[in-house]
Amino acid sequence: MQHLWLTAWTDILESLRAKWFAVYTLVFGSLVVLLFVLGLTESRVMGFTGLSRLMLTYIQLSMAILPIFVLITTVRSLAGDREAGVFEYLLALPVPLASWYWGKLAGRFLMVFTPVFLAMIGALAWGALQGAEIPWKLFGYYTGLLISLSWCFLGIGILISSIAKSVDVAQGAAFIIWLALLLFLDLILLGVMIQQHVPAETAVAIALINPMQVFRTGTMLLFDPQLVMLGPAAYVILDNFGSTGYMAFALLYPVALGTLTAWVGYLVFRRGDQI
Amino acid sequence: MIRTHNLHKRLGRRDVLQGLDLEIERGQRVALIGSNGAGKTTLIRCLLGEYTREGEVTLVGRDPRRFRTEVLRHVGFVPQLPPPLKMPVGQLIRYVASLCAADTRHMIDVAARLGFDAERFRHHPFVRLSGGQKQKLLIATALGRNADILILDEPAANLDPEARSTFFSLLAEREKEAVMLISSHRLDEVAALVNRVVELDQGKVVLDDRVADSVDLTSRLDCHIALTRPEPAFAKAITPWGFSARDDGTAWHGTVAGADRLRFLGMLSRYVALIGALELREIDDRRRSVQDRAHA
Predict the structure, then answer these.
(1) Which end of chain B has less neighbouring CB within 10 Å, N or C?
(2) What pTM did the predictor assign?
(3) Which stretch of DSSP H or E encloses residue B4?
């Protein structure tokens, strides 16, 4: 365990010095500032106003930005380190492979999640100073969803890094995966599929395995409990899961998927050439 | 200490190692030479357990892939190209020392002997050090712990002559109890350091020779050079070796590490038309210390 935390701590310090982390933090920090500047806390949508409204928008924007950011920065830095000879040197030291791999994942998770979370905390603190009511339930659930989404895409990113031997291949694969998941959101391809009379069960099954869609539906549940915005597919989801069941699913499924992909990545890493 | 039997490694469509058999015993200092693509780096990566392979590889009697931490505790490795680590010098030393259960003080001392003040640069990112400083630090982290298998990939390529001389002395301190595998493109770079030469070509051992172990790694040579005329290019080349000029720049004097003599003569050969006289004499340290004491 000592080696795992040592590797995690080293990765955290390396990330703090990296440009990607500065840009990543800046993007999420700026996002919150922008939402305040635009006066989003003053607007009202479907009965949501104040900080709830701001958090709702923030979480929707996070869904668009977080996955591609996590994927690209993870594969770029890990595949880049491998290509540049960092792995060759550090893996010649007596560190257990499991500690190295899971330590890197743990360190990276903290670095990916912290700026997103801190931006949300900053928004709450500022809102509270302005006298707005803090939506604790929404905050707790959205924090859980952000943890879940970050972990999921980190797992996918580290799997790609384990398989791909060059930065270009890793980056290309990460982009294609993100694009495929984006296309299978209800907004785009699922809408077309339903229009083309694809069975609702097929459309819903696709929606249920796509972590971005699961996240999106999960975030909708708190302000649209009947999932009116989702259309007829909502009946299948609510009949099978119920509102609370789906909220739990939206938290657990991406975590499970991220853990599974990270585990497969570990097996590939352990059994194959490490550099 | 190191054994490979019928070692094969395929990278893409190419058989990089083709049935390599090698046994290296304690006390042997092996030059691993060969042209680019001969398989030197691949062999090193197989020994470090970083590559999968077919065939048998053992270090201290164990497979480095199955028992990586136990095996790698014995190994000090210096890569050919320093990794672009952003971490500061102090953190790198602490990280390596912590993984190897070593004392950071010892690594800092070795770095100081090589002419690198690790304390002064402790907050400096490793990646922003000069090539020579990086090499010195990597050597310090490899030699500043109890590693009895030293795998060194072009270790002295970026070192100045003074640091090379110290590096040879550091190796000499371990020559009895350690195995050294020193990889290089050119034999003259490492010839004086080793007592065995293994040449690879297309993944096979094409030469495996024991060589006379007559060079003392700690020896030094007193050198006088007389030139036929002063030459600025010569002065520029010999000054980094610590030589100083007398007269009008036609007489030069300095000392050269014994193990570095071939490299030094290689440098001189570029100016052979200028050299009127050359004297290289091994310094007898025992006699010199007696004379020094008498003089005092």
Answers:
(1) C
(2) 0.83
(3) strand B2-11
Q: What angle do CA B70, B73, B74 make, to 5 degrees?
A: 105
Q: Which of B70, B86, B99 sits opposite A93 (nearest CB)?
A: B99
The amino acid sitting at B264 is F
Longest dimension (CA), chain A: 59
Q: Where are the alpha helices (DSSP H) in B191-255?
A: 232-238
What are the tens digits of pLDDT across the range A31-87?
Answer: 878 877 776 555 555 555 567 777 888 888 888 889 999 999 899 878 888 888 899
- What is the Rg, in whole angstroms, of the alpha carbon atoms belonging to chain A? 20
Reported ipTM: 0.81
B61 by Cβ neighbours in 10 Å (0-12 / 13-18 / 19+) ranks as exposed
Cβ–Cβ contact A95 with B under 8 A: yes
* Distance (Å, whole) CA A180 – CA A191: 15
In the beta sheet, which residues pair with residue B2? Answer: B24, B59
Tokens of B57: 């590889």
3 state SS of A96: coil
Tell me the residues of chain B between 122 and 161 that have a Cβ less than 8 Å away from chain A: 125, 138, 151
Confidence of residue B296 (pLDDT cuts 50, 70, 90): very low
Write the pLDDT tens digit of every residue in A137-188.
888 998 999 999 999 999 999 999 999 988 999 999 999 999 989 888 766 6
